[in-house]
Amino acid sequence: MAGKQRIYKQRIASTQTLGKVFRAMEMIAASRIGAARRAATEMGPYEKALTQAVAAVAVHAGLEHPLTSVRHDTARAAVLVIASDRGMAGAYSATVLRETEKLLEWLREDGKVPVLYTAGRRAQQYFHFRGVEIEHAWEGESDAPSAAMAHAIATELLERFLDPNLFTGVCQVHLVYTRFRTMMSQVVDVRQMLPLTVVDAPESDEAREDEKGGEDRPELAFPQYEFIPSAEGVLDALLPLYVESRIRNVLLQSAASELASRQRAMHTATDNADDLIKKYTRLANSARQAEITQEISEIVGGADALVNG
Questions:
Q1: pTM
Q2: Long-range contact list for 231-236, CB < 8 A, 24+ apart?
Q3: C-beta neighbour count of 175 within 10 angstroms
Q4: Taking 50 as the threshold, does the pLDDT of residue 223 lie above it?
């Protein structure tokens, strides 16, 4: 009985230590998620302004640009997977990797040759263990991505898409990341980023309703622009910035999602540690009571033996 009591006390001590670690990680994630959410939100106006500028140039100039043109000279398709550097985040990375496997299978069935890029150590380790070749990997900043990392990723993917070489260029660029909705809801998104699809901003539902009704709404139309030095030059400058802002946005969305998942997972782990401590405490008390009962029984038995003897 004494051995069982000692084992339960050791388990209580080790579980208490783990509970402190889980609680500390939960508090760290909670303190950092606010900054991550603000960073992801603040990217919205910048990306919206870039989208409007790209749409304005494309609508007025009617130009064909390499970033908006479909390539048919190669079957290579780049896939950027954004996962976490560390674990302790629940099913965050596992969900992203599962959707990536589905995308890779779909691309192969469509006759494409996937070219894999990873951001986050978990994704790199997952595909490396399965023998999948990784073209390039970034790591170390999954929960706090920097502008330099976003620039490096965007530059690499743009160079591959614009590369005329059939063996090193790609015809498509796909993203697999986690979009942050709320603290309790994060959704994995699979999107094709390149070639870009320029949406005509005035062709909104409201604008189409006005066209049907015959109302004149000049404020819904683009103003007339004069492009300096030329529309081609403006588009050449805007589209790379647009691509980089998209990469930056998905990295920030993924960071906020990772921190939210880690906070939830550590909160659950802390609760489970508390439940285990209560369970082991009850078992230790039961073992102690059984030990005391046994000692009393031995004393009484010895006393009876002396009296009867």
A1: 0.79
A2: 231/57, 231/60, 231/61, 231/63, 232/61, 232/63, 232/65, 234/57, 235/54, 235/57, 235/58, 235/61, 235/63, 235/65, 236/65
A3: 23
A4: yes
